[in-house]
Design brief:
This protein has about 140 residues and is mainly alpha-helical. The protein contains 6 helices and no strands. The model has no long low-confidence stretch (mean pLDDT about 90).
Length: about 140
């Protein structure tokens, strides 16, 4: 229910669109480079564009925040209802804050750069985005 409510918001719709764009790019590039080719963390020294630096910082921040919310949700599973917003909804709200940096990244950064190191690093960054979102929900299973 919380996931659907989130996806019904403008932030949710736009973040899902950004997720799908990242996932599609990764899927196409993994066909060339092999499954798991972009696992691991991006190298901050290879982040050139301000939009990719911002996205990297935001992914790390949101990952830590959602991990905390999901820990609380797991710890308190089966207890009485939360007063107000649940930790899962808090995690979804945190994910929503990724929307502006994801939009900026796709607006300003060429993922498949001519420089192979930049290309690889940018694909790793997109994989970090995909992984961060999958920790909260499997967005690949959402129809539409």
């Amino acid at each position: 229910m919380a996931l659907q409510r989130f996806l019904d918001t403008e932030e949710g719709k736009n973040l899902l669109a950004g997720y799908r764009r990242a996932a599609n790019i990764l899927r196409a590039e993994e066909k060339k480079d092999g499954a798991g080719a972009f696992d691991g963390l991006s190298d901050p020294r290879l982040l050139r564009d301000p939009a990719e630096k911002l996205l990297s910082e935001k992914i790390r921040s949101v990952s830590a925040d959602t991990q905390q919310h999901l820990f609380i949700a797991d710890r308190d599973a089966g207890r009485r209802e939360f007063a107000g917003q649940t930790p899962f909804e808090d995690a979804m709200e945190s994910l929503a804050s990724l929307r502006p940096p994801v939009d900026a990244f796709f607006e300003h950064v060429t993922v498949n750069a001519e420089d192979p190191q930049l290309r690889f690093n940018r694909l790793r960054l997109l994989n970090e985005l995909r992984s961060a979102m999958h920790r909260v929900a499997d967005f690949s299973k959402i129809a539409g």
